[in-house]
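Narrative summary of target 7.
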Amino acid sequence: MKKTNKFISTLLRVLRPGAVWSVLLFLLGGAAVIFVLVTERGESVIGYISYVLSAYALTSIIVSFPKMKADTKEFIKTNKHINRVKRYVYENKYGNLLVTDVSLRVKITLYASLGINLIYSGLKLFSAFYYSSFWFGAEAVFYIVLSGIRFILLRNLRKNKGDEKRELLTYRFCGYLLFAMNAALTGIVYQTIHHGMGYEYPGLIIYAAAIFAFFCFTDAIIDIVKFRKYKSPILSAVKVIKLAAALVSMFSLQIAMFASFNEDNVILERIMNSVTGGLICCAIFAMAVLMVVQSFNRLKNIQS
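Modeled conformation, tokenized:
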């Protein structure tokens, strides 16, 4: 028993070298992998060392995360410079409103994402007609529906705040629209698997796309945890739609990664795109079903 405990404590010391070292190793491992991929040295000794280093760094970050989170909270709580900034923000009228008003922050996020989605869906729709492409057409439908959902949420967030029945009706309607969005996504997945359609980013843009995709996914997960305490159906719909869009971003990243770094193994690419695309479609379908069922049950309770 003592040997087992000693082994576990030694392993934890190895996997938790400290917050600073964990972050430095993560940055070094990421830089090493990018260097290996850009210089096409994946099969060399340097390539294998970079893979091991990046795997160790990622494991270290994951294992150290709870302690890093607690240390960061303590640092923010006790640091006098940060507390001075916090006091200034809370004493400022607009800063206080931004920090304390959850619905305002959601509105700002919805406005920004709605604008981006409208531009993106317009470009995809133009490309669909110009190239007579089913691929671009499916993408256009996906982003048009996504824009429509975000517009409806934004409109109802302003009009029906506090009206639970109206919010539940909006929540249910967004669930129905999520089915339509999932149908368009299914068309994208089908085109990816059977016709080899996809994305290919030039140069180092693929790494910027990867950072953006992981940021969106992490942000969506954080919002789900953060907004869980709020009982507003509109806020629940916002976080569901945000997660669905983040999942699609991760799938798009996978397609682009295969197009950039896997030119030979077509079978592996098809299998991975089938599995990931199928799982994401099933996950979004399940979220849509959950939204519709939850809204029906809660509306029934209100009426009875």
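The mean pLDDT is 76.
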